[in-house]
From TrEMBL:
Claim: tRNA processing is one of the keywords in the record: yes
This protein's name: RNase P subunit p30
Main location: nucleus
GO molecular function, one term: RNA binding
Protein family: Belongs to the eukaryotic/archaeal RNase P protein component 3 family.
Keywords: tRNA processing
Domain of life: Eukaryota
Amino acid sequence: MLCDLNVPWPGDFTRKPSADEFRRLRQVVITLSHLGYTHIAFNLTVPGDSKITSPQPIDVSIVKDIPIKVFTRITLMVSDPAQCHSIAKLNNQFDLISIQPESEKALIFAAGLDIDIITFASGVKLPYYLKHKTVCGATDKGIKFELPYAAMVMGYEPLVSTPVGSPRTNFFYNAHQLIRSSRSRGLIASSGAQASSQCRSGHDITVLLKTLGLDSARAKATVSDNPERALLRGRLRIKSYKQTVEPVDRDRKRGGDTDAVRLLKRAKLGAKQS
């Protein structure tokens, strides 16, 4: 299972994508499929104070002919905790809910929410220092932290440094911050690709993250196990109450006796015979 949970959706709640945007989106999905990805998510990114309407605007049917499983995701860009009031409305509209905190205060608040992913702007240097307590507290709850790599592979690197840094430099800075503060746990790597040239294979991403300090197993998990757990968390949020799952006895569901009942009957039979 190979996952990319951040394929940007080009429209929003007020505007549908153009024909050219649909064409580029399909090219990205086709490329990811050829690279071996099996699960992706169309990601709708909106400001936290946006008006949320129903139904959600993502149309996964535009790629139904491509052999890949598609999910829906929304990312709210939040600078103030007060902007998170609309999250409850989104539970049944999207498979994944993500927060992009633009301040440390928003990050601390997001770490306590019932969401799936915390992400950061691709190629933009984090404006605050990531602390172990905040990040590890969120990962202990099952929230994943996303590292979008599109800015790193865009191919443009200015010869003269700028005050805000180049997208590639900022990517490496953010990656080191995330790996350090999370103690290498609960990370997912996603493309954030708006063009097919920005897509990379799972092997390439694994090699990149190993050079940044992750061991082989955790580097592979960023595009496989960890995204899968994020998808499962999203489904449990939709299908269960506070992620409570009722165990189903397979024997009883089939109408037969459970192992415990069979043992009890055997014990009673033995007592009668003796």
